[in-house]
Amino acid sequence: MINLKEKTAVVTGASRGIGLEIARVLASRGASIAMIATKENKELASSLEAEFNVKVVSYACDVSSSEMVESTFKNIIESFGAIDILVNNAGITRDGLLMRMKDEDFDDVLRINLRSVFICTKAVARHMMGRRQGRIINMASINGIRTQAGQANYAASKAGVIGITKSNSMEFAARGITVNAVAPGFIQTDMTAKLNEDTINKFKESIPVKDLGKPADVANLVAFLASDEARYITGQIIGVDGGLNA
Description:
246 residues; seven-stranded parallel sheet; 46% helix
């Protein structure tokens, strides 16, 4: 079993969905967790802390703001002693056909999905480089590889995540820091829960394994990439998509 005891993980977008499941799985492997979301959630942090007997602290932070991220990460290092793992999971969607897409819808998605990866990675890079160790896992998407109409902003942001992952992996490799990305396909989240049964069945038929993924499928891969067992894996974009992008 993957052992992350004595490790501290920062997870952005950790209040729900895939981000929350990542925090849960990392905590279940023994990692202390700094949960970052737009709003502080002490109750959720206390619940995870009690369930897994690890330190969990919730932080409110706009991950697209350099000033807020730098301040928050400084507080995390002071509280936990170090940051060993960074999971850049924060993300939003503002889908729409290009001719109807507002400028702010494009900008907001790039700001949260891509700019935050740059800012959070930059905030922790010097710290990890000084310790000559670290794991950075970025949340990409199958839509950054093969996309569909109405997602120009989202697809661009996730393709950008893939690019920054590959570039940063080359910059940091000699300092013992790995940088990888996870590219989920159709995962059961709050968004898919809003879809009708016919739409979900069509999605399932398009997937070789004929089923949607679960947040735990993504979180389990993140836990592996965060572990010592993944020391020789860097610069990779790994799909969790049931074979959809095979």
